[in-house]
């Protein structure tokens, strides 16, 4: 078996856990699955933005809690600690990025870019968590923290620099 064939996930299309964990197919992109997963989260976030803040928070917390199971189970089924196709963690991280953020094309682009920067570069403590925490929570935690850092920059740092989009 070739290395490429070994790296392909053993996706069971009728398995809802797998389907959700791979971002309803967005994580199956051959290049940059995390970016595609983050992009696929935007329509969901736009729908969630119609909810009152408490509703948005409830959905976000549930996505984070359920994500521990979805990501952990799918990683086990795929035989990989954190297979690139698993992007539910990006969905949850993007949800955190946009907590109480009024949506406009500017805030969506800024939040998306900030989240991807933190998720890709993994500044401390994100990289440490990514390397030392395992299982479903280990898959989720680095993206949740990347989302929190992106949110902080979007809501506090950019406005303090006179670049507020809110």
From TrEMBL:
Enzyme class: hydrolase
This protein's pathway: Phospholipid metabolism; phosphatidylglycerol biosynthesis; phosphatidylglycerol from CDP-diacylglycerol: step 2/2
Membrane-protein topology: Multi-pass membrane protein
Enzyme nomenclature, EC number: 3.1.3.27
InterPro entries: PgpA (IPR026037), PgpA-like_sf (IPR036681), YutG/PgpA (IPR007686)
Catalytic activity, reaction form: a 1,2-diacyl-sn-glycero-3-phospho-(1'-sn-glycero-3'-phosphate) + H2O = a 1,2-diacyl-sn-glycero-3-phospho-(1'-sn-glycerol) + phosphate
Pfam families (alphabetical): PgpA
Cofactor: Mg(2+)
Cellular localization per UniProt: Cell inner membrane
GO molecular function, one term: phosphatidylglycerophosphatase activity
Membrane-spanning parts: 53-71, 91-118, 144-165
Domain (YutG/PgpA): residue spans on this chain: 20-157
Function, in words: Lipid phosphatase which dephosphorylates phosphatidylglycerophosphate (PGP) to phosphatidylglycerol (PG).
Listed name of the protein: Phosphatidylglycerophosphatase A
Organism annotation: Neiella holothuriorum
